[in-house]
Amino acid sequence: LRTRKLTKATKSSSMSEVKTYYANFTNNKRVTTSNIYVTGFKSDTKDASKLLKYPNTYSDKKPILLVHGYQPLNDMAGDGYWLKTAELLNNADYTVYEFRWRTNARFSDVADDLAKAINIIVGDTSKKVTLITHSFGGLLSRTYLQNYATTMPYNNNVQSLITIGTPHSGIFDSNYSTSNGIYSQYFPEGQDSEKFENCNQLSCHEAGEPTEDGLSNAEIRYYGITTSTGELVYKLSQMTSGHQMPVDTLVLIGLTINERRGFNDLFEEGDSLISYKGQRFLPDFATINNPTTGDIAKTLPGGKKYYEYVLGYPDLDLITAIPWGVAPEDGLGEGYRHSSNQWGNTTHGFRGTWNEAAIENENHHGYKQFLTWLNKNPATQGYYQAQILTIKFKLIDDSTDLPITEGLNNNIRLNTQYSIDLNNNNIEIMTEYVRYVSQILTIKPIGYHITEKLILNHSYPENGILDFGEIRLQREVVEGLLPGE
Questions:
Q1: Closest among 9, 3, 65 to 32, alpha carbons compared
Q2: For residue 139, which of 107, 113, 112 has the smallest C-alpha distance?
Q3: For residue 92, which of 359, 361, 436, 440 is within the disulfide window of CB 3.0 to 4.6 Å?
């Protein structure tokens, strides 16, 4: 069956009454949106969109809403899309919800559903909602925030927006300039694969990819869209009066690496679906190939700010990239891919072992950015106020009670970025504190047994100093010698 029929949502007054058309699999019958699923992220019904609540969460915590991205055909995301993201955020004391939607629809129509879902969460928690979005989910959220939903104006109920791998600057096949189109705005080549070709969804059309056969005049009238692709991203980029961003935004950009990607210019590539330029928040900046390494704030019309950060940068390793399409050993990959593992696919083969949205553990750079952003000082209107953790200790030989001062270089390590000052055995390590992201301090001077210290980071220590005092180490026993000999 071809997914030729495109979707359009009808007007409704409550979330339980939202109705929409979608293609083929239900013979174009209308389906209704369900309410909150309190038993967890699981349902087999053919809903148009739905709101789910992660189990074992409490409404007195700050709410987070996960919004997935583009899905082929007329599917909505399944239970594995975000992997352990919700569980990790729940463990970090947030109330986690998920919004699922079918992407073969106009963004403005689905934005009505999203608006109603956010209203339900606010009613459930009495707090504004932080949106964590992936791919097209970022465009959908901006459609609501910038007052382009079909019937639901923005209701001042969102705390902030986080986007991951979102094509803010569109999914155009090639560079789009004012000289060859109807928009008074440059747009870059936004695709980093051929996956969007023949997408045949209204959402793709509005983001910059034409439908397979084009739309007939009757379809254009029915769906209320223009024949030109990319209309939505154009409107979002202009931020005219009444359509400005009402909240601060963190933009997380994914890049992948292998021997055919990144050697000439890392920032000419993308996440194996959306190009680096396509992920830039403003298309005007997509012409600049400079890295967005974080802590770079741009003020938008209306006074709100956005911050761009390349996931994993500057630690992306260009030197040890492995052959195209070959999977690296566990833990040796670099970069962040858009979606599920694609090893063996010569079109999308790359070295990246991290999935942008399906977060497996707390070492995922995106997860660390989530927590840093969520714990920012709301009075600053900027990005977070970075908290520096200073770890102090002295090393003592357990057999002689003397300080250990030799063999320390490169033998004291932290599993996150850090700087170290040995200072004659008054050792200080400085690192960035991120709540709920644990760290492991490994100490292995030459001739001594290894010692590890687990730093849980459940609360920021007084004055930002974690002092272990004296750490006593035992010498390794070499066969034929006594300790100390």
A1: 9
A2: 107
A3: 436
Residues of the chain with pLDDT under 50: 1-45, 179-180, 258-265, 289-295, 317-333, 341-352, 377-385
Parallel/antiparallel/unpaired status of strands 49-53 and 34-37 = parallel
CA–CA dist 198, 310 (Å, integer) = 29
Residues in the chain: 485
Surface-to-core class of residue 375, CB atoms within 10 Å of its CB (0-12 exposed, 13-18 middle, 19+ buried): middle
Query: In a 10 Å sphere around its CB, with 0-12 CB exposed, 13-18 middle and 19+ buried, how is residue 290 labelled?
Result: exposed
Cis peptide before 314 (omega within 30 of 0): yes
pTM comes to 0.71
CB 54 within 8 A of CB 93: no
Distances (CA, A) of 376 to 90, 151, 383, 419: 18, 33, 7, 23
For 372, residues 6+ apart whose C-beta sits below 8 A from its C-beta are 384, 386, 432, 434
pLDDT at 266: 52
- What pLDDT sits at residue 181? 56
Q: Which of 243, 240, 231, 236 is nearest to 204 (CA)?
A: 231
Contacts of 169 (CB under 8 A, 6+ apart): 187, 188, 190, 233, 237, 277, 278, 279, 280, 281, 282, 283, 286
List, in order, residues 6 or more apart from 362 with CB less than 8 Å away: 88, 368, 436, 437, 438
What does the pLDDT read at residue 89? 92
Q: Distance between CA atoms of 7 and 20, rounded to whole angstroms? A: 7
Q: What's the pLDDT score for residue 105? A: 85
- Distance, CA of 50 to CA of 27 (rounded, Å): 20
Q: Within 10 A of 282 (CB to CB), how many other CB atoms are there?
A: 17
Q: What is the DSSP string of 222-236?
A: HHT--SSTTHHHHHH
**pLDDT for the residue numbered 226:** 75
Task: State how far the Cα of 392 lies from the Cα of 453, in Å rounded to an integer.
Answer: 12
Q: Nearest-5° angle of CA 192, CA 240, CA 159?
A: 75
CA 286 – CA 190 distance, rounded (Å): 10
Q: Round to whole Å and give the CA distance between 139 and 120.
A: 21
What does the pLDDT read at residue 393?
A: 92
Kindly report, residue by residue over 411-422, the tens digit of the pLDDT.
888 876 677 888
